[in-house]
Amino acid sequence: MKAIRLALICVLIPSIGAAMLYANKKASSAIVDLGTLGGHESYAAAINNVGDVVGRSNTALGDSRAFLWRQGHMMELPMLPSADGGASAGVESDASDINNSGAIVGNCDTGVFEYNGNEREVYHAVSWTNGAANDLGVLPGYRCSTAQSVNDAGVIVGLSINESHGPRGYDYEEHLAVFTPGKTPHRLGSKLYARNIRGDVVDALRDSHATAIRFTTNKASRILADIKLPDYPVNLQINDSGQVVATVAKTVVPRWDGDAVSGSYVLAWLHGSLPTQLSSFPDYPNAYAYGINNMGEIVGKVTNRSNDHLSSRGVLWRGEGVMDLTETYANWSGWKIQNATGINDHGFIVGWGIRGLR
Description:
Layout: E1 9-14, H1 19-22, E2 32-33, E3 38-47, E4 53-59, E5 64-70, E6 73-76, E7 93-98, E8 104-115, E9 118-129, E10 132-137, E11 144-150, E12 156-166, E13 169-179, E14 186-187, E15 192-195, E16 201-206, E17 210-217, E18 220-228, E19 232-238, E20 244-249, E21 253-254, E22 260-261, E23 264-269, E24 276-277, E25 286-292, E26 298-303, E27 313-318, E28 321-324, H2 325-330, E29 335-343, E30 348-355
Antiparallel strand pairs: 1-2, 1-30, 3-4, 4-5, 5-6, 7-8, 8-9, 9-10, 11-12, 12-13, 13-14, 15-16, 16-17, 17-18, 19-20, 20-23, 21-22, 23-24, 25-26, 26-27, 27-28, 29-30
């Protein structure tokens, strides 16, 4: 299972209400340390309208496990059994999303396989309902899978994956799929895909010259944008109001030392078919969006030109304006908020940061 391992703590940040009502009032806010499952690191991934938070945390043994945080308590989510029906064979799991009914999705280890003398983990997409882990399977011909999102209609979207290390280096292959408990995953032809509770769909179709971002509602489709190569979208989201946000990777730029760096920008369709490129800060040109609520509020992060995770800044976009979450809500607290990963319809934000490092 791939995971970014940084010495960071989950945070829960209540934001102010709608900007048109409270723009001239001082925001009252609090930061809640969600804790860990016994280790030193935890990462929040998503929050629903009830205030339930999911993500992953290290344990006292250093394993990474999926968690559910509810009413002030963090609990470990159960693992899948091993592929041969024995006790749990995996040591890692990850929760990526939760809907308003409490359905949680992510992935779990199910065992290992050997490739050129090296052991590799096998992980499957999983849904957690009523306290039980449900194996969502993989597409035919694939070894691993992960569930990335679940909407309020229960539609689960994720990837089937083949990855291996061999004498010729690292090989990675993935394909998008819709997962349904108890059924074989359905293969999608899109590069990226998201669906809301109304059945509106936004997806990305790539050819040799561009990636078309397509919006489909009531079986009628229109192209929102053509992203010219080598730029390409790496994330698409749609809320239940039909608003869309996309993170787009920039062209790779040569540097004086012969290396190459890449960044990203965020496009949002909040008022119809015309996209808006969301703003960032001076010296932080790269922007990433990870969550949008039904009011069109978007959260994510901005980074400097080196894309250094330790210098990233968690942000909130309202309309075309951008807020630094540390400066707006946490400047007094000792926290540096480095990423915001989810926002619910009440304005509560989850993400992660570091306390005591400014």
